[in-house]
Write a structure and sequence with these properties.
The complex is a heterotrimer. Chain A is α+β, with helices and mostly antiparallel strands. Chain A has two domains: about 1-40, no CATH class; about 45-160, no CATH class. Chain A is built from two helices and eleven strands. Chain A has helices spanning about 5-35, 45, and strands at about 40, 50-55, 60-65, 80-85, 95-100, 110-115, 125-130, 135-140, 140-145, 145-150, 155-160. In chain B, helix 2 packs antiparallel against helix 17. The radius of gyration of chain B is 21 Å and the shape is globular. Chain B has three domains: about 1-95 and about 350-388, no CATH class; about 100-280, no CATH class; about 285-350, Alpha-Beta Plaits, CATH 3.30.70. Chain B is about 60% helix and about 5% strand. The longest helix of chain B has about 35 residues, at about 355-385. By secondary structure, chain C is mainly α. In chain C, about 60% of the residues lie in helices and about 5% in strands. Chain C contains nine helices and two strands; from the N terminus they run E-E-H-H-H-H-H-H-H-H-H. In chain C, strands 1-2 form a two-stranded antiparallel ribbon. In chain C, strand 1 (about 5-10) and strand 2 (about 15-20) form a beta hairpin. In chain C, helix 1 (about 40-70) packs across helix 8 (about 225-260), helix 2 (about 75-105) crosses helix 4 (about 165-175) and helix 3 runs antiparallel to helix 8 (about 225-260). The chains are: A alpha+beta, B mainly alpha, C mainly alpha.
Amino acid sequence: MKRLPAILGYGAAVLTIAAAVVGPLFWFGVFTRAAATTALRIDPIYSGGEPARTLARDGYQIVVYKPVPKRSPLSPSGAFVQIVWTPASKLPSAISEPLDLDGNGRPDCVVSFQVPRDPKAKLQVTVEPLTALVLPMHQVSDDSFSSLIARVNDTVVVRVPLR
Amino acid sequence: MPDQARSIVLAPPRGIGRSLLLTLPIALFTLLLFTPVLRQPGLPAKLAALIAWGFMLTLFFLMMRTRETYRWRRIFFITLAFMFPIGFIWDLIALRSSMSIPIEKMISGDTPFCFMVIPILLIPAALTKTLIFPGSILPTPSNPHSIAMMVALWLLATVVLGKAWCSYGCFFGGLDEGFSSVAKKARLRKINPQWRLVPWAILVAVVLLSAATYEPIYCMWLCPFKAVTEFPAVRSVQTGLQFGIFIALFLGLVVVLPYLTKRRTQCAFFCPFGAFQSIFSRTSIFDIRIDKEKCAAGCVLCQNHCPTLSIDKDSIQAGKTLSTCTRCGACVDVCRKDAAVWHIKGTPVGLSPERARLLYLYAAWVFASMFGGSIIANALQKLIGLLV
Amino acid sequence: MAIPNSFSFELFGAKKRNMYVLSRRRDRCERGVAERVNGVSSVAEALALGFGSGPVCLASCGPVLLPWLGAEPRELRATGRLLALFLGGRLAGYLAFAVVAWAVGAAIPVDPRTRTLVFGLANFGFAALFGISAFLPRRHCPLLPGEGTPRLYQIGSADRFRPPAALTLGFLTGLNLCPPFLAAGVRAAATRSLSGALLFFAVFFVGTAVWFLPSLAISPLRRFSVVPTVARMTMGALAIYYAYLGIVCAASWRLAPIRAGGLFIFITGMVSHA
């Protein structure tokens, strides 16, 4: 009985070594699969949120995402809606599109930007509000997470700030 | 070690044959580990894997032969910390021609995850199921260092090493350990032990603020290692201020203060992840104990040589190190009376400390080879690729 | 789908979406939220809204409340009294804002510029109080209740300056205008009388206050001597952060007219969206 703590201690030490050896072989895969089953998601301020609806156009699509709110008065980024044009390679050279952001059938803003042939060229977007919902943007590139235009893989991502 | 002490290991060196025998399990494991890399095409990858394998084995052999831990572990740890930025920055420059993080990468989830943000994620994840850090949850071809992978790695490290992550796993800690080894003597000797509480205050502050703002406050404002990894592009007063803070913290806490004090000042007096990891210090089966009967009154060599000030008079009286102990082995190697010893919980203190040390080193070195060894090999591959 | 600034969070699997509409006049809502609020259903709604918003309120107020509760060695009952005073101050902040808004005929003054100014002042207040608490030496400590001068448990020990801590901190957090508060504000503004609005707010507040009770768990932790020291150090760090926020808000408030004129001056991320 007196030796039991020592036996358990040595046993735990050996198991620790076994965990170190075997862990990389099995543990990472198990944990990753478990993580995939949780409802965890990347903060929408980075990922842009979830798609709300897709609009078909001639040769490309426009995906309007659900609004991402400002969650805290201390948070430096404001509310926004992400809009994605895909594929970027099939876009016309200039886009100027009235868009309905809240799904009520009326356009809330007009989004305009040029699409240079060079995929590494800097993009700039202008947003003209049509309702009080949207804040204006004039030739904005990537000011912040809530107002930007960026080429992400083969898409053009625009984030329109909301009031 | 502080004050240029040399380790005093009272037992004679172990025989070469016996040392080789004890090194054999590590040799076999690391060979298995590096075999896939050895099979890769290209001479740089093969050479890098061989060198890294030989490097890790040699250090372990020397640990067995000399019965010292701290000196050889420190060589590995400093090498890891200087090699990591080489490999990391190389990949950034190759991909983006810049160390700054473009916003496109954050949107697409192609930013690697850093373990230091783990404590900050917990409350927002519990409340809203969102992870307030850019990246991808699952590994992707463009981002193998996903959040799930790094958290899994951290969990494994915590089970195996506990707080010893700060001596065998953290690829930043070796930087201030390296700079603390440069000077022969400490120029600043008197350090108020209250400074040890600052990491806890930083931890509480960044956890609470991150929960309130849904921003990774530590990464945005306080991480000294942004100076040697990646950072948001400086395009505004705020990002300029952030960059200035990163540089100032790096130079102050990682370079200058370790040089002056010969202590790991960033780790001991600032790092909130270290404070977080201290919570798991007591979960590890391995620890360091101080045999009060063997301890010479008033000696305090162990206290003077601990890089993280994890030993004080009260802890010596209690016969153990503080929860901030990183199991680096400095105190054990410097103790002249064999009073500071390696220990497995549940066993009598001082009974077969060398056996406890061996078992601890097997666990620690297996992890170090898997994690740190692969980082060293990756960086070596880049460097060798330049020459070959 | 009603937007913008909708606030949603998931708690223990139960998804709750709080909607609120920004409007300058309480008798006109762009999204049609205004409806008759009466009796029991309005109290139940306020309570549900408050309880659902509580975790977010606690997260928002946590940086202010928790380090401060941890900073002084007190027994559990004294901590409970402090928490009650803090929550009372927070309620006073909420109600004061609601009364002012009602008096000027607006739903909630959600003009970004006004909000920025109020927010900035609150942040400077936090920074000042925390800075005093963290950095000023103490000649005598307010200890157990009944000893010393129970002036609502002071911050600092200088005889010349003894701000009442609990109420002040609570009041400042009440001015924070977090999304749950704004959601409650819009609902309350839909009531027909000031007393109805205040009642709605008060019940909403009770719903949120339940979530603050676990903060009493700090009390037993204070038997560890390091806890008050760490708490004070935390307050020192937070004082610096709140001072920075206050400066940013002040800059944003000052520069907003220039920005509205079309000259875009990007000072900080906070300015662009404050």
